[in-house]
Amino acid sequence: MNRRPNSFNQDKPTGPSRIGLSWLLSRRVVVLVVLGALLVAGVFTAAGTGSSRLGFDEVLTALGNRGALGTPEASPADNIVWNVRLPRLILSILVGLNLAVAGVLLQGIMRNPLASPGIIGVTAGAALFATLGMLAVPAMAGLVFLQTLSVPVMAFIGAVLAAGLVYAMSWQPGLGTSPTRMILAGVAVTAMVGAVQSFLAVYFADRIAGVVLWLAGSLSARSWQHLPLIWPFSIGGLMLAAMIARPLNLMQMGEDSAQSLGVGVQQTRLIAILAAALLTASAVAVAGIVGFVGLVVPHILRYTLSHNHLWLIPGAALGGAALVCWSDVLARQLGEMPVGVLTAAIGGPYFVFLLYKTRLI
Amino acid sequence: MPQPHADNPPGILTGQDLQAGYAAHTVLDGVDLAIAQGDFAALIGPNGSGKSTLLRVLARLMPAKQGRVILHDQPINQLSAKALARKLAVMPQNPTPPPGVTVRELVGYGRAPHTHWLKPASKNENALIDALLSRCDIRHLADRLVHTLSGGERQRCWIAMALAQQPDVLLLDEPVSALDVGHQLEVLDLLTGINREQQTTLVIVLHDINLAARYCRSLLTVRAGRVVAAGPTDAVLTPGLLKELFNVNARILNPDGLSYPVCVFDRAEI
Question: Which of A21, A24, B83, B188 could pair with B79 as two cysteines, CB 3.0-4.6 Å apart?
């Protein structure tokens, strides 16, 4: 019956779980700045390391010498940076960005930190159809160009089909889709797709010799030609992600709450899945399966940066880019190891460590 | 702010022949109801009678298989999700506190139906949120994380968030069932105040008949997916009704010095 007077409570010292707004703000900014610095450092390291080592200033000079390319004035460093290292490192950045943002979107709509392009079957679907693309267009001398075109297109079809199949399998009339059903459907689709993939790998081993390396996730021997296969999708995916950042925040309260705040829950889900399929498929098309990025990066950032998707999406873009960029530097140092092997080797244990630290298991 | 409709008092929210259910299982079997503008109505009935389903259908969280819900003079199916959210707010039974969100942010979420994804919150919005934090007595918790709060504090946060939508009608599904008696009274006092001050129409699912008798102006009783009785609390609340609803023998007392009746129950013999 009696209302406690507000003035009594307002100036009361607050408990230990109080988090000041300015502190939160500065922490978020600090994390973003650190991620940005990591990425810039990664770019210069990636451009400088390799069979010939280049210093920071040499990389800068080479970057400024684009006009000299193809002329006698071009130094070996200019050629190495512009023709070999730059396309590869840009690809690594975009692959990391795509996978991490796809992970944020999928975790956001499913309210489950285990959701990721890998778990939900999107990666497997993209990989299977990309393999089919390689089979359909054998890598004969004259057809190399056709293959570089067919692989990404097929990867996208596979990603959308897998996402659509998962969506349809988890959909119940009148109730829509539930996160749990979606993850179970994703596991089922991944298993079925994996079976077909293994069948192809065994029966057509001679015709798709490169597929094993590609499936392991590799960025070796990538050039400027591969860039158009990914950057438009990165931009499109980021734009869709920005559009649904606020609805995703509301959806963390559960479907009913989000819907009663005017969020179109099914539309938001559909946009998120489409964006995740675009981002994942283009990453798979240029680099194969680079695992764990879409799972670990968003998860780490949820705890260190923010649960707010307005911060999380740009943060994951920076974090994913930095992770794959540095992983590729390390992979090259380790004798052209597939970068996907490395991201899994780094990401897996860190994920377990994080689960243990946050006492989620 | 909600506009009082003095010339049009009956039925700000009406349901006509509502039928709903899950798969082959029918939960609502032809419900007709009318909630008056400014009412504070309790929705009561035994477990499994369809109270929550009715609330979900009224809020369009679940489609009606047949019949329609009319808000003001418009079928709610004709409204966009945002337009509906500006007029009608729902507090679900167990809302999930989103991780890492402060009380102020949570209340700000209630402004979502009034904002566009490109438009940031304005100064006015912040003043409105401050006023709501004070009104719901959670201003001192503004920078705390919602999931660290106690049950009673959380309920006040959810109510503040729903009020930030500036709805004409607020539906609440068992907002006090998980609270101790002190916090139950606190939440219901808050709701009573809001109902009086802002003429917000409230429909609240309650299990405690005595709380309904004390706080609610009218009762809407359901059993087996049908309305049993509806009307002013004094007129509707009878031993006969309670027997029909809950299979209990009830005595309804009017103790001296109390402005509301008190019910005492015994299990009815078969």
Answer: B83
Q: Which residues pair with B70 in a beta bridge?
A: B14, B75
DSSP A260-316: HTT--HHHHHHHHHHHHHHHHHHHHHHH----SHHHHHHHHHHHHT-S-HHHHHHHH
Residues A141 and A158: their CA atoms lie apart, in Å, by 26
Question: C-alpha B129: how far from its chain's center?
Answer: 21
Rg of chain B on CA atoms, in Å: 19
Neighbours of B134 (CB within 10 A): 16
Structure token digits, residue A45 = 């390291």
Q: Which residues 286-305 of A have a C-beta within 8 angstroms of B?
A: 302
Range of lowest pLDDT (A86-100, A226-240, A342-356, B246-260): A342-356
B140–chain A Cβ distance below 8 A for any pair? yes
- CB-nearest to A19 from B61, B99, B145 is B145
- Local mean pLDDT, 10-residue blocks, chain B (270 residues): 45 91 86 94 93 93 91 92 94 86 93 77 81 93 92 93 95 92 94 94 94 94 93 92 92 90 84
How far apart, in Å, do the first and last CA atoms of chain B sit? 51
Query: Which residues of chain B have a CB within 8 Å of the CB of A17?
Result: 144-145, 148
- How far is the CA of B91 from the CAs of A86, A91, B75, B202, B204, in angstroms? 53, 47, 21, 11, 9
**pTM to 2 decimals?**
0.85
Kindly determine whether residue B148 and residue A10, on different chains, have CB atoms separated by under 8 Å.
no
Rounded-to-integer distance, Cα B248 and Cα B250, Å: 6
- Distances from the Cα of A69 to the Cα of A65, A66, A76, A83, A244, angstroms: 7, 6, 10, 9, 42
Interaxial angle between packed helices A179-203 and A144-169, expressed in degrees from 0 to 180 and rounded to the nearest 10: 140
Q: Does B32 touch chain A (CB under 8 A)?
A: no
Q: Is residue B131 within 8 angstroms of chain A, CB to CB? A: no
SS3 content of chain B, % helix, strand, coil (to 5): 35, 30, 35
Is A307 an 8 Å CB contact of chain B? yes
The answer to whether the CB atoms of A263 and B81 lie below 8 A apart is yes
| Residues A144 and A221: beta-carbon distance below 8 Å | no
